[in-house]
TrEMBL record, chain A:
ATP-binding listed as a keyword: no
Family matches, as CDD domains: F1-ATPase_delta
Name of the featured protein: ATP synthase epsilon chain
Similarity field: Belongs to the ATPase epsilon chain family.
Subcellular location: Cell membrane
Membrane topology: Peripheral membrane protein
NCBIfam families: ATP_synt_epsi, PRK13442.1
Its biological purpose: Produces ATP from ADP in the presence of a proton gradient across the membrane.
Assembly and oligomerization: F-type ATPases have 2 components, CF(1) - the catalytic core - and CF(0) - the membrane proton channel. CF(1) has five subunits: alpha(3), beta(3), gamma(1), delta(1), epsilon(1). CF(0) has three main subunits: a, b and c.
Name of the coding gene: atpC
Pfam families referenced in this protein's UniProt entry, alphabetically: ATP-synt_DE_N
UniProtKB/TrEMBL annotation, chain B:
One protein family per Pfam: ATP-synt
Keywords: ATP synthesis, Cell membrane, CF(1), Coiled coil, Hydrogen ion transport, Ion transport, Membrane, Transport
Assembly mode: F-type ATPases have 2 components, CF(1) - the catalytic core - and CF(0) - the membrane proton channel. CF(1) has five subunits: alpha(3), beta(3), gamma(1), delta(1), epsilon(1). CF(0) has three main subunits: a, b and c.
UniProt protein name: ATP synthase gamma chain
Family, similarity comment: Belongs to the ATPase gamma chain family.
Coiled-coil segments: 258-285
HAMAP family xref list: ATP_synth_gamma_bact (MF_00815)
Top-level division of the source organism's lineage: Bacteria
């Protein structure tokens, strides 16, 4: 099965890298799915969960990450997801995110609310 | 104990105490260099991917953007100088400040005004002592900068670049920092961030991707929007990288300065103990000759009375 190489990098570290058969991310004009052999692409990401269907040496499975802004770029079967902040779903502290969401709602802090919401959605897998 | 011997002993004690302090500072700096180097390495994937993307947009589209086009007659340039908060690092701060001075001279010779933006207490005090105007300055995080720090620095700079020159905006953005070459070598260096010099960015990305030709990209939503979003991030990541390199260089410079201070203290202790030994020996010799002299005088006296 065809596969593509994925690099998910945050500003200060590499978050995940491996082989995948499908990557779904949210750009400013809607969700976009990238499969092997896609046309070279460069897009602006919105904060939201990114779903990576892993395959090959990375094992079959799904990796979900919360990405807060950034870029998606695909060329030569290599996909890079660049984000200032990116967290894998299993790195996210659910309770903390819930608390942050509550606090953001009471403070009416839209940006913080969105961040916490994206984190929670990445964990629960509800897109 | 004689007076001179006591003075030497006291000086040896004080130099030993100083040596202990400088040795400790050397060790701390050495461990911090490693940490800072690791941070530089961790930030590299993001920076190189971002450079690749910027090159792709800039070369793969005919988009004109305020941040990539050179002004016909630039009148004002912003200069971001990265120094440290603390001293005890040999010539680290003065070298980078000197590099900034040279760049300022050069820009002024080209007929541009220079707006100074400064990171680090050393640079701030240099400018305030000479009563020069500083547009904005930041202190307190130079030892271990975070990405959020880079963002706070980048924000006013990007704003200034986007503003019209007539309203106080700038046409160019230069950065002066200390590049971490190796543990022993750190060089102060200036670099033009904006407008983007594409040849250089292309060369950088060619280096990282070994001369591959960039494909034609499909832009989502459009080339202009992507570039709009990309360039500020590019500036931030370049500033972040410069901050990290400056921090690593500062620690390496501290380590070297403290190592030579420790070596000097050792040297001083050695020569002082030689002097102290000589003084002690002189004292002993004097005592012996006094005793011998005294007993000889006694013997002469008893022989004379007989």
């Amino acid at each position: 099965m065809a596969e593509l190489h994925v690099e998910l990098v945050a500003a200060d570290r590499q978050v995940w890298s491996g082989k995948a058969s499908l990557v779904v991310a949210r750009t400013s004009s809607g969700d976009i799915g990238v499969m092997p052999g896609h046309q070279p692409l460069l897009g602006v990401l919105q904060s939201g969960p990114v779903t990576i269907r892993t395959t090959g040496e990375s094992g079959d499975g799904t990796v979900v990450a919360a990405v807060h802004g950034g870029f998606i770029s695909f060329a030569d079967n290599k996909l890079s997801l660049l984000a200032e902040v990116a967290e894998l779903s299993d790195e996210i502290d659910v309770q903390r995110a819930e608390r942050a969401l509550e606090r953001a709602k009471s403070d009416a802090d839209a940006a913080a609310e969105r961040r916490a919401d994206v984190r929670l959605r990445a964990v629960t897998g509800v897109h | 104990m004689g007076a001179t011997l006591r003075v030497y002993k006291r000086r040896i004690r004080s130099v030993t105490a100083t040596k202990k302090i400088t040795k400790a500072m050397e060790m701390i700096a050495a461990s911090r260099v490693v940490k800072a180097q690791r941070q530089v390495a961790a930030s590299t994937p993001y920076a190189s991917e971002l450079t690749r993307a910027v090159t792709a947009v800039a070369t793969g589209s005919n988009t004109q953007h305020a941040l990539t086009t050179e002004a016909e007659s630039p009148v004002r340039a912003a200069l971001l100088l990265i120094t440290s908060d603390r001293g005890l690092a040999g010539g680290y701060s003065s070298n980078v400040i000197k590099a900034a001075e040279q760049l300022t001279e050069r820009l002024k010779a080209e007929g541009k005004e220079v707006d100074a933006y400064i990171v680090g207490r050393k640079g701030v005090s240099y400018y305030s002592f000479r009563e020069r105007k500083v547009v904005e300055s930041w202190t307190g995080f130079t030892d271990s900068p975070t990405y959020a720090d880079a963002k706070t620095i980048a924000a006013p700079l990007i704003e200034a670049v986007q503003k019209d020159t007539a309203e106080g905006g700038v046409d160019e953005l230069h950065i002066v920092f200390t590049e971490f070459v190796s543990m022993m070598t750190q060089t102060a260096l200036d670099d033009r961030l904006l407008p983007l010099s594409l040849d250089k960015a292309a060369a950088e990305s060619a280096e990282s991707s070994k001369g591959e030709i960039l494909p034609l990209f499909d832009f989502e939503p459009s080339a202009e929007d992507v570039l709009d979003a990309l360039l500020p991030r590019y500036v931030e990541s370049r500033i972040y990288n410069a901050l990290l390199q400056a921090a690593a260089s500062k620690h390496a410079a501290t380590r070297r300065a403290m190592k030579s201070a420790t070596d000097n203290a050792e040297e001083l202790i050695k020569s002082l103990s030689r002097l102290a030994n000589a003084a002690r020996q002189a004292e002993i010799t004097q005592e012996i000759s006094e005793i011998v002299g005294g007993s000889a005088a006694l013997a002469d006296a008893t022989a004379g009375s007989d």
